[in-house]
């Protein structure tokens, strides 16, 4: 593959694609955009990375001779072994040899080297050698000696193939010197039994399966017993273990070591280069520290093995003097100075610190190197660039004699960006500021108050509009230009030459108002119909700062939705939904189309290469969101299908120069598609009638699609054949009709006297108008015809050619020669032709001196004549164009279709075409036949994923869009190209994804698309070298999270009860009992007290080396392990509560629908609906029972389910997810499933009416699954809470709680009707189309509240301050496992809190006249009787940090600081965007209180470090300063200039992002400079932490003499409630035994003192009069019931009292 040719074609296509999407009328703006494109700043030169060669470490034979390996290794480790050949000796790299040497010492070690460095041999060789030595020394015992853990099954599969070559080849079956088996969950049951019966020496597995092996009794008894004294534990891809997953693996390693009694274990880690921070010494130390923390055993810095590189060339690179290529032979090549020079530029350089050869610290482009080479050899830089490319290609074709891999293996790393919108100041066309760099104000001195507003452009004429939001008397910038439905959203129209008139009368007289809006009043004067008056523009004068003010720029304000263009007068009847189809912008049409273009270009170019085999012609593409992968696959498939149809039409027209008519158009286009029968047939084996009917179904569908494609601009992002000049639609006999004078005698004089050619133009324009609104008399645009097409498609066609079951009929409109107010509408798109309309105005322009009445008469006459001549058919009093009158002809491609009515083109060549799409249809479309994409994500079923992997590997599936599921270990040797739909979260992710291509050493291309508006994408587009160079930080692990430790203690307990859990939960619970209790044998095993004792003892051993760190947390105490083990049985039972609820609900639903079906009084429609709902309920029950599945990755596999509920370790599975039920598609009843999301994501993605993208379709959330006790009742099970208005702190609504526990503020109103979201149900909407650029996100107003969870007497928070010297700067309050609640208050700009819901069905309802698109009338809340308004919420535990400044600051400064600190933390600690979120909290004193949340379960431990490490906050502040364009040392403004334009207040390179765009007007980097500078020099002293024992001991001592008080105190301590402030306090009127904060007196009665003076009811009354609250604990009362009544006094226990 010529990677440079593929790259050249990619850039050519991408440049053409971006160049002409949006028409721009204004010359200054057009020049600005043209200059930007000419500069190529959207496709900078690609970086070229040459894979270096590794220094040799000798052959295995050499190591045997040196007695580093036993002799048998010489026979085992050979390359190319077969039955009749011993193969060749295996040569090792130096880092592999070093691993062997360290392994011999018995020490643990880590290998961090680049891709393709043979990392697996660094542990396989030592392990095999150690086992062979055991045998040689006579001390070998059967059993597992080594466990190798892989993060993905594909890596284990790949390793099995490698071990087969070494350990089986040459020995024969059953005679392997060392045995090995894979045990990952993919194995069949018989294979599992074999492994358990005869455990191997080496076990290859993944971390989830290893956890199951530790937990499930059968495997534990076999494999863990066989692994007693385990010697080797290997973690492959060490750098991937971050966050909760990494912490879980670290705990798993400790459990394995304890269970296997592995006192002399050697732990080995392999990784891509894990960290590039600091010197080599510090890098090794950092890796050693990370590995030690992960393994729980010390790893010395000296035992961190890095790569040792060598030059493959031998010449001196400084001796290059010419550009001649060497002979294509190894010896000549490596001795060539030019080859040596290229290697020195792109492959290896000398490290100045150590003198060693290393990879270049910064990647280079060919252009940069060529410029340098040109100076050395005195040649033209372009010639030098060509020479560099040629030497690289030559090096890629020559094998290295030692490694047999290409001498030069390289990748091109291309970053692409669509660029940002055009932003304008609110000034006249001549004076306004124009930029493409998003900022909020003009970055020029003296104009800092001039706001910048994004421009949108009319898709018909290119007129620019300023996209704004009106707030009172001020306009602000609005980025969400596709949002409509709020009168505050709108657009400003500014035109000096063509201003909007001051009055409606003048606008009508000047023909500026759409024709369909004008009616004739009773007095005969024209006016705007009442329904349209609110959409008329309003003239305003606007100052540059956005305020409406006298003396400002004159503008017309158009409130959204955009209804007509004020320049070309194109009007739109649709007033709901998006303005996307009406107005374009340079950034909106982006990611999906760009990715589809990139994908199709790469694959198409690979297909054109005759030297490539089928498996090599494919593309692997990544995105970081599962729904984005689904959206992109659907977008690509639709894109390809539309291109194929248009290309086929073009080719058919080429074959028929005289044109095609309705009778043959579908047949000829179908033939030109060149599809094989298997491409579209449901049954490819069909013959005879079935085969003929299948072809007929395809022809009918093609016919329907062709007619739809005639509609004006229906596919916004893909101009059709007419728009690209490739199709001309003519009309039968039109020249003859125009020339026949007898037809025109007796009609209006203007027509009668016109020349025939002028009449023809008028007629053609009229007929074009009918055709472009689809006013065509054709069967497929009628309901019967459409139904027939749909039915035949359902019976015979398959995706992507089958029609969607949810697709609706498109009716053909009717053209009426009258105004629209005179009759009923059959279609909202019916065409009304009058003298006031667009066509009437066209006639008046063509015939000066005529009146509107004249124009109307001419329209009637032309329609009548063409009807008489057979071109039109009458429909009532209207007309339609006959399909038989159309003649489809090939266009000349010189200009687009002319729209004489709406658009005047000044140039003679006609409307501009989009050359990219023209070439795509003419030259490239045929090469897309058979091309289809699929998604590969965790929400796709396992068996389907596996099938797609195989199809992709073989090249049968040529485009695969995947989430990070394919990031690791998928060794696809024939993969030449990788595309990234977004910039990956970290350089480590980028390295892994890029590393999928070119793994055999062939040249490879990596393309990354960087979307505008996304700070992460744009930052790395500007700093792409950091991503390519792999500036990777070592993973950070928080091993002090209580939920984490709890889940592993639970796993230890589950292993100790020795209960084998069935794969189906229905075999663990008694589903025949109403409450679904544990089955008797399960309950008995769970209640075993000895198991609790054993589990506690094991947990103590596992956690022994972590106790010191745990003691400084807010939740740990000395008895924690014992109590966790004691609580495990109750927690185990409670973990099934969610399943019980889901199962009970599905059962009730099935029975209710069954009742409806059996009720003979039920209507047919209701019965059919009940049948569907019953089937869905049965499918849900089947999913919940997990029948016939041993796959441990299914949601309801028992152990996986317990992990998702947080009872067992979750690893990469989300804990306590929300689930969405995806119903089966019509006719595919088996395709049902639940998909899940983490709660805080799901509150938005699964909100009312939200869209979910899955497997090429869009689903809409329409229901909440109600519990049976809620269905049909009068209301739902909701709760109440209060959020402090002064600090955002969360309080449950408890009587007597009126003061905030956090800030002592008075609590405000109670928030009622809170509904916890659990499971939602969806309905399928439609197939994803290529018009969908980004996922449509429902806009919700979400509110976050939080609460620190006290851990008994220890507060669940750590309070600290950042200080500089003695001066405090910032307050910090950290809480681990704090409660965070996210509440969905309603849709954006809601008028009342919450959403209406049908309490009988759980269906979400719309309010009357709600602006929600596509809602059925039955969803109208006013039509439903049993309804309730609820507020959905979710909550979970997270690590949080609350920061607060020491003095009052402005709102702008507070929010700017919050985002600056968030960006600094993310950058310093290399967190992904999704790992940390922030939100400004209320603060009465205006001190900028902000909440930071570690979003991943268990967290990354970063927020804790900010309060526990003195310099962590300072480091984050320094990084924030750098990001905000300030010098870290001095605070001097560095400007952040891009293209000589400085950053004024904030930009996407610093503090702005897509996620915080609501606050862009407020963010100002200058407001935070001083505080960040001070914080960069600050320290955070470690906060003091008191132990529970220290707190309880004096309380216990004081209560010793009072037995009832002592007993109550002991109970409070055991169950981890709060301790009292004081005991036996004399309050004057009484002496209670305990006093709690907030003036709470607690009386603890003895056997006979309850009514004693000073503690009787009179004493209580007196205390209450003094403002005290009183709690009484009766003698021998139920402590648990008492304390639960007063959570504000005693707190809440994490332990459930039994």
From TrEMBL:
Q: Does the record carry Nucleotide-binding as a key word?
A: yes
A Pfam match: Helicase_C
Matching entries from CDD domains are given as: DEXHc_Hrq1-like
What is the top-level taxon of the source organism? Bacteria
Spell out the SMART domains in the cross-references: DEXDc, HELICc
Residues annotated as domain Helicase C-terminal? 897-1045
Name of the protein in its database record:
ATP-dependent helicase YprA, contains C-terminal metal-binding DUF1998 domain
Organism equals Nonomuraea jiangxiensis
Give the taxonomic lineage as stored in the record. Answer: Bacteria, Bacillati, Actinomycetota, Actinomycetes, Streptosporangiales
